[in-house]
Amino acid sequence: MREALTNPAQGYYTRRGGVGESGDFVTSPEMSQVFGELIGVWYVSEWMAAGKPGAFQLVELGPGRGSLTHDILRVFKQLASLLSKCDISIHLVEVSPRLSEIQAQMLTGGQVQSSPRDDPVYMKGISKTGIPISWYRDIQDVPQGYSFYLAHEFFDALPIHKFQRTDRGWREVLVDEDPEVPDQLRFVLAPSATPATQNFIQPEETREHVEVCPEAGVLVQRLAHRLEKDGGAALIADYGHDGTKTDTFRGFRNHKLHDVLKAPGTADLTADVDFSYLRKMTQGRTATLGPIKQREFLKNMGIDLRLQVLLQNSQDTATQKQLRNSYDMLMNPKKMGDCFNFFALLPHHRLTYPDQKDNTQPRAPLVPVAGFGELSLK
């Protein structure tokens, strides 16, 4: 899976990276500006709940074409008077040279400087709204500090191990050449236990077939460690489940399902994110919220109000139709509304007060976390 997606010469993302109408898949930010705007509002809301710190980094993992960061930057610009005393910087983690060029074009108009080869920041620029942007290949290279992390359709592309329960215990599912058909791959069961079988299967596992993504586990540990140390929040939006699904590994090519073993490198490969595994891998360093379905999260964030405002402001019937169609795509349970989930990592003190010896002082109620509870319009 890693080879097929990120091989430097023939990998799907490094060579093609087919996001958008003409590619192999369409993502929520490609569908509608409202999606990115509401995520921007979520970060501003968390910044305010934290007491408006003097600076924050927005770190996006795998930013695609840059549409999501672009829409979030529009929100920051619209709320400039609120954010005027805050020092904001954007940090993009992207391995694909082709996608980073597309991002640079969208966010800076192509006005970027490349760095020397050994510099962890491989590219720098200033957004059209005047905010500094840096590009990195690895989250480890992003500076420490109070940060908001964003991973939209990022975790589902990280490589997985697959396991099958057999009468001889757990066996790893491997990829092999098919001896019957030339140039064809096939799935096989490992004849005996592999290191992955011994390391990645939880003792309490009840499913017959399991997919585990160790890289997602490591990444969540890093995020949790950073949030515990420096504060901030992480928002993960992706296909996924809470430890219930089994075989979800699939490919997409030209917006259609594609056999994952056929012509590797020509299709997007994906597997649903197991949020129960991510929760476990925080190891209690942070609090977690969700997973909650995309349509619930966006409704709680006020998408219906935002749609009404945009419809009222647009005189053009074609624009109104496009707004309604993209709203339906995001919210319809049969489209994106139910298959995408939102999941957040937050410092513990954001949700519960630290134990205090002196309980005589009245405490202000904790501000609810937007998106994860019903929106009340006072």
The portion of residues assigned to helices is 25-40%
**Residues in β-strands, percent:** 15-25%
Structural class comes to: alpha/beta
Distance between the termini: 49 Å
Summarize it:
With 378 residues, the chain is an alpha/beta fold. It has helices spanning 2-6, 12-15, 28-31, 33-49, 67-78, 80-83, 97-108, 195-200, 214-230, 275-281, 294-300, 303-313, 317-331, 333-337; strands spanning 55-61, 87-93, 112-114, 121-126, 132-136, 147-152, 161-166, 169-177, 185-189, 209-212, 232-241, 250-253, 256-258, 268-270, 273-274, 287-293, 340-346. Helix content is 33%, strand content 25%.
Describe the model.
The structure is a single chain. With 378 residues, this protein is an alpha/beta fold. Helix content is 33%, strand content 25%. The protein has helices at residues 2-6, 12-15, 28-31, 33-49, 67-78, 80-83, 97-108, 195-200, 214-230, 275-281, 294-300, 303-313, 317-331, 333-337, and strands spanning 55-61, 87-93, 112-114, 121-126, 132-136, 147-152, 161-166, 169-177, 185-189, 209-212, 232-241, 250-253, 256-258, 268-270, 273-274, 287-293, 340-346. The strands form three sheets. Strands 1, 2, 3, 4, 5, 6, 11, 15, 16 and 17 form a ten-stranded mixed β-sheet that branches. A four-stranded antiparallel β-sheet has the order 9-8-7-10. Strands 13-12-14 form a three-stranded antiparallel β-sheet, with no helix packed on it. Helix 12 (303-313) packs antiparallel against helix 13. The longest helix has 17 residues, at 33-49. The chain is globular. The termini are far apart.
